[in-house]
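User: Can you predict the 3D structure for this chain?
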Amino acid sequence: MASGLLLSFVVLVGLLHHAGLSIDPWSPSNLPFVGVAVTATALRLAVRRWPSRPLVIAARAGSFYAVLTAMVLMGAVASYPLAAMSHGFSDAALQHADRLLGFDWIGMYDMVAAHRSLQLLGTAAYRSIYLTPAVILGWFAWQGRNEEAYRFLATFWLAATITLVLYPMMPAVGPLSYLWHGPLPYMPESETWQQGLIPVLRAGRDTVIDLGQLRGLVSAPSFHTASAFVFIAAGWQIRPLRWAVVAVNVAMLLSTPIEGTHYLSDMILGMMVALVAIAVVGFVSAERGRERVAEQELLPSRV
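Assistant: Here is the predicted structure, written as structure tokens:
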């Protein structure tokens, strides 16, 4: 995990340099992220001196949350240089795929725009992408299931990495900007940042990234969709939370076309990304498990 984060950071620095972008290290908007790192470090140091059960659980949770925060932060920042280095837009192809699938984005948008209850429920469901992993990691910390926590984080990291690798091949402004013309009766959670920000980044007119004002730039593959499947796979291992995690993430998937301004084809790609990440991490974990069993079986004969 540490090696993966370090490699991600090195790649991120290279991407920022190549795209001519930078981050102001002294910006006040960086303080929440510094606070997470300081808190996690303080808990790890404190538990060495006072190894009580509550403090051990808090230290575990702090470490998990710090790793997750680092992944989310680096992934969001990486989308900026990748957007700056991308060319053209793939909205026509993505919308054509939606037509072949029979998906009517405008019809779904009209329905949501006409019902305030759907807007409130959709926004809450879409924002659950921040709550669900916190609950899952908190449960793993409480139960001392460190290996499962890091397997979940590794799957999340791999899904994010695959998403970012594919993103420059199919940048898009999203269906709200591409399909809708005229006044907007309802502004979704993701708004229309891609249409305005991506051309600015490509032109090199905005070179300093404010960590407190990061915007979602990735349309395809849909990372909300990839996250939902990763969360369901991890939550399924937690029997008391299993169906709650499934219900929340099904709701998030239903909210993603409008609140995330995604094509259905974006979401199918996001699902495929998640399935690949889950399969790869599962295979690697199983291989490592078999290796540990083999080593343990050899120990008596060595003794």
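The two ends are 32 Å apart (CA to CA). The chain has one domain: 2-302.
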